[in-house]
Design goal:
The chain is of the alpha+beta class. It contains five helices and ten strands.
Length: about 190
């Protein structure tokens, strides 16, 4: 993807823990993630941090950080989320108008953005429905299965997650996660 060649695009780097986009920030650009991992997070009414999605380099749509904020008229160009570098990241900072024009010229990419956002929306609806029903153990098992892969030795997680990260993803207290994992290990 030639984002680096578009007018007004600059390369930037973020260290682990730095914010690419903060809650309340005016959105006039997106980031195309070349290398690294970024979490989209928000603070719940109860004061818990919750991870809504993970962005990684590799796929065009999966690497666009903040793109959906352009298409959400209720936010009036202001971010409702924090986008935080979870590893050191290399990105291209793409101005909003340049990105929008590029997507208009490449409707297949825009279609991928819509498809990805609908998949994310369905996942979040499922998350909130199961949270309402109090099925923390089921949500945890689903989370682990989604992120595992088959090997000759059984299913393994391809990436190590901490209890804190899992609790943020599932909006479940980290102590609850630890208790459920303890029971699962015993079984």
């Amino acid at each position: 993807m030639p984002f680096r060649d578009l007018p007004g695009v600059t390369q930037c780097r973020f260290q682990q823990g730095e914010y690419l986009i903060s809650v309340g920030e005016q959105i006039d650009h997106v980031y195309y993630l070349v290398k690294g991992i970024v979490h989209r997070e928000f603070l719940t009414v109860s004061g818990y941090e919750s991870i809504l999605s993970i962005k990684t380099g590799g796929s065009v749509v999966g690497a666009l950080v903040g793109i959906l904020l352009f298409y959400w008229p209720q936010n009036k160009g202001i971010s409702d989320y924090n986008f935080i570098a979870r590893t050191n990241c290399i990105c291209y900072r793409v101005p909003k108008d340049v990105c929008m024009e590029y997507l208009r010229q490449h409707p297949d990419l825009l279609e991928d953005v819509v498809r990805t956002s609908m998949e994310e929306y369905a996942r979040l609806l499922d998350l909130f429905q199961t949270k309402r029903e109090g099925a923390a153990a089921s949500r945890l098992c689903g989370f682990l299965l989604e992120r595992s892969r088959d090997t000759e030795h059984g299913r393994i997680l391809s990436k190590k997650y901490t209890n804190v990260e899992i609790s943020k993803f599932l909006s479940v207290h980290k102590v609850t996660i630890a208790r459920i994992l303890g029971v699962l290990k015993e079984e």
